[in-house]
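R.M. (postdoc): so does anyone remember the format we settled on? I'll just put the structure tokens first.
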């Protein structure tokens, strides 16, 4: 029987099959933990006298509450004593239970969904969980990856499995040729705008078509990262040569890499496999996107007008954002720019932003910060001189971490400010009380930083090189 990618990975990890009365017991291949959702789980283990079942299948880092600025004396100014306790508690718990941890002294420390793929811990065919909703990022490698709650973090620590109902499957198919300036961030925002923030509820998404096949792993991670914003349980892209090239030579990749690649290739959806639902979009219809409301589904092409508010919730969102139906987001004054997060803090993202900012100056009215997703990326960016581009343009170049994505570490805006952000959520107050957030690509964020207003990146990007027609040899 023909199977989808999701079905194949699911079937490999079922310990006890699902029944009408009981969810399936699903084995977890990799458990990622950080300082925010793990302390309570470890406390429960201690209270019950339990140990971590598979510390070798657990990987820890610190990212959410970590400061991105270092004091002149070398100290780290935590925003609150509680934030510091979260970090120290994670480090202590991980050491107690023998869990590999990437703390302050690690060259790999960073955002959990950036660090794990860099180490090669994230692999095709795995089941991966973390106490963080954007665990869907790892589906870019052909893994079933999803966020779990604090109680479930405790369950996985104790028994390396989880209870779960099998979701339905949905194919998102996009074929064709992308237009100038269209990025993976624009693609996923366009998908969410089309199917809605609840459109993926109850489904595992598989992104299919030449647009995703041609995409880099950085781009694929951006797309899968925001699957949760459509309500999906997870998002996946089938492993292929692009996947293998990314993973080759990394710390945790299998020793017999060729055999592993052959197995991973077999995970691709079989010809004739049936999805419960299919959504088809044309690449040519997608343009650079921005959000205008208070969730990622409220997104439009940057050269479009804000649609009418059909519901009270939509009206409230527009009021919060201080925007009006029938007007453009393009040209709206901004106060801050944030380039970073588990969505857009990888090398491809930093290079794209630097290409626009090179030789330019950020508007005096704008504060811009750039935060690499990991120590590895920070070092690579500095080796390429990208940090000098950002600093010369007037941006701040900070230490790796989640930073302004959710503002847990003190990186926030002031009430009423408008921030154009490369992160994944634009909820009211997400980046500080009363702060208004517009989601966009690194290119759009960088272009807007220069002008001080929301700006179509195509207006500052070099035009595409036209293809010369093949006229054949002269007669």
């Amino acid at each position: 029987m023909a199977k989808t990618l999701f079905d194949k990975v699911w079937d490999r990890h079922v310990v006890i099959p699902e029944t009408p009365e009981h969810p399936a017991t699903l084995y977890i291949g990799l458990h990622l933990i950080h300082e925010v959702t793990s302390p309570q789980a470890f406390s429960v283990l201690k209270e019950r006298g339990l140990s971590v079942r598979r510390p070798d299948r657990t990987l820890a880092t610190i990212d959410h509450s970590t400061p991105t600025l270092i004091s002149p004396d070398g100290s780290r100014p935590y925003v609150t004593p509680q934030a510091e306790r979260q970090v120290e508690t994670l480090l202590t718990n991980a050491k107690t239970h023998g869990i590999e941890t990437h703390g302050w002294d690690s060259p790999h420390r960073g955002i959990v969904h950036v660090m794990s793929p860099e180490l090669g811990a994230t692999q095709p065919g795995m089941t991966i969980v973390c106490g963080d909703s954007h665990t869907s990022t790892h589906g870019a490698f052909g893994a079933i990856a999803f966020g779990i709650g604090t109680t479930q973090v405790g369950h996985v620590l104790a028994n390396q499995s989880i209870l779960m109902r099998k979701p339905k499957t949905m194919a998102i198919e996009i074929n064709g040729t992308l237009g100038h300036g269209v990025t993976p961030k624009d693609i996923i925002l366009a998908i969410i705008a089309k199917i809605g923030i609840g459109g993926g509820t109850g489904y595992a998404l598989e992104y299919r078509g030449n647009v995703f096949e041609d995409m880099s792993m950085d781009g694929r991670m951006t797309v899968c990262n925001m699957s949760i914003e459509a309500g999906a349980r997870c998002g996946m892209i089938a492993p292929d040569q692009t996947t293998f090239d990314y993973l080759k030579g990394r710390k945790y990749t299998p020793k017999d890499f060729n055999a592993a690649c052959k197995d991973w290739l077999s995970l691709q959806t079989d010809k004739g496999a049936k999805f419960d639902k299919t959504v088809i979009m044309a690449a040519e219809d997608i343009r650079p996107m921005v959000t205008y409301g208070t969730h990622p589904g409220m997104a439009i092409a940057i050269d479009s007008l804000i649609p009418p508010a059909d519901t009270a919730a939509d009206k409230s969102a527009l009021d919060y954002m201080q925007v009006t139906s029938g007007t453009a987001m393009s040209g709206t004054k901004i106060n801050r720019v944030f380039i970073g997060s588990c969505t857009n803090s990888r090398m491809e993202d930093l290079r794209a932003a630097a290409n626009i900012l090179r030789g330019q100056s950020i508007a005096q009215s704008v504060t811009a910060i750039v935060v690499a997703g990991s120590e590895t990326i920070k070092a690579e960016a500095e080796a390429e001189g990208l940090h000098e581009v950002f600093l010369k343009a007037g941006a701040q170049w900070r230490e790796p971490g989640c930073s302004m994505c959710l503002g847990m570490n003190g990186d926030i805006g002031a009430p009423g400010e408008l921030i154009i952000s490369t992160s994944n959520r634009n909820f009211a107050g997400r980046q500080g009380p009363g702060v208004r957030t517009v989601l966009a690509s690194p290119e759009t964020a960088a272009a807007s930083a220069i002008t001080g207003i929301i700006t179509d990146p195509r207006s500052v990007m070099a035009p595409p090189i036209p293809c010369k027609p093949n006229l054949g040899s002269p007669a």
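R.M.: ...and that's the designed sequence above, right after the tokens. Also worth knowing: Confidence is low (pLDDT under 50) at residues 471-475. The longest strand covers residues 168-175.
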